[in-house]
Amino acid sequence: MLSNEITAIVGACAKRKRIGRGKGSGHGKTCGRGHKGAGSRSGHSVRLLDEGGQMPLFRRLPKRGFNNANFATKYEVVNVSQLDRIFSDGQTVGIDELIGVGLVGNRKSKVKILGDGELTKKLDVLAHKFSKSAKDKISGCGGSVKVVA
Known about the structure:
This protein is α/β, with parallel strands linked by helices. It folds into two domains: 18-64, no CATH class; 73-147, CATH 3.100.10.10. 17% of the residues lie in helices and 15% in strands. It is built from four helices and six strands; from the N terminus they run H-E-H-E-H-E-E-E-H-E. The chain has helices spanning 57-60, 80-86, 95-100, 132-140; strands at 75-79, 92-93, 110-114, 124-127, 129-130, 144-147. Strands 1-3-5 form a three-stranded parallel β-sheet. A three-stranded parallel β-sheet has the order 2-4-6. The mean pLDDT is 93.
């Protein structure tokens, strides 16, 4: 195949509808909107998911079961390796300190400490929840774990 033999695929590019350009265009007078009614007026738009008089799909389908997403407690996760990297030996690490260094978003957040990584410093950590491995690593370095209510 040569470059001069390449032709356009028939029907791939539809011509633009030139609306309101006289009878000869086929889209003159009412411009494809029909006669009268809301559809012929400016500013008319059909609501998304509107099915006219038919029972809408979201009302036809049954709502069943319990969704825990509405009630689940969400925790911001901080790993032991992050504590080791940021805080110095013998320091007390609370929610305010975690917010200060940018590991936690705000005061309302609940914090869970996870045991991913290594801890080499003695830290006194205060958080809402701890994983078993995180407790072991913090205690193993001589630090203490305190659960905040």
